[in-house]
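Comment on this:
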Amino acid sequence: MRLRHTLALAMLPLAQQAWADDYAYASVRGQFESREAQPGNPLRMRDSTRLFEHAELRWQLDAPLQNALRGTFTARHDRDGGSTIRINELSLERPLGGGFLTAGKKVMSWDVGYAFRPLDVVQQEDRRALNPVTLEGVPMLAWESFGEDSAMTVVLSNPGHGRADQPRDDGSLALRLYRHRGERDEYAVLRLSRRNGTEAGASFSHVLNEGVELHASLLWQQRHEEWQRQRWQPAGRGAKALAGFTWTTESQFSVLGEAWVDRSAVSGQERNLLLRAAQHWDTVDVSADVLYQPQNGGRIGTMSISWKQGPWLLSASWRHYGGAAGALTRSVAVATIERGF
């Protein structure tokens, strides 16, 4: 993939999106999920299955006066009852002060890690989800500017919310700076919120050669909370940190290793080690990874395969939980079929 700076450079075209052509894209998906409960688990959970259909519509419409309207709408029907229609993204974007202003609801994921992202302070995406559906954006006012080798983003997320039930829904003000230097991408983040006070962090991704990349992130928190007894509990100053590497061959075989600490995680799951191997062919991706939690001996193994041909996408994932990580669930299997239009 040559390598993560490719992702960073991909940010630059985002500056042009506000003036891109109109477009629309739709997809439909059917997904089956099966969960095998651990026998004798303390919550008396039982084996369960779920089948749902999911439809998505993405669109952009250029509006007068250099404005652009963007939206992502989804509809979902669960076979065991219940249907939802959701506005995942809906935003107005227009040039302002040498950058462009975004007002509305938008997906904004940050940082360089694969499985864990300490600097993802706005979107707070679950990076370990199996066959995830479309992300739901965050209500925000944002201003972004892009230079040839730099970018700056200011985000007022969830305006007026203050402290919400979940950290992702908190009102906050965040600043992100990006700079590209040689073979390295550098990021710095500052966030202010009622729950965490001041948060400050930095990350980088450095390409050593054609096949090897190193990355790391560190976030310091004035205050943090831990999830205990089904609620968030104050726990003093906090920190999140990650270090990792990727190694990719010309034949598109890759190995990724990451280690991270998350002091806001459930007790015993703060420290994690991940090793992942993947192979890409023209239309097929195969991967396997193992997550190990040294504090409690928890082990989570995952295997995935996907095939994409034209508008069709077939994918399947299987995850097994061992040790303390398997106290409630023994395994999860997910199969997806999707078609785009």
Observations:
- The CA atoms of residues 151 and 178 lie 5 Å apart.
- The chain has two helices and 20 strands.
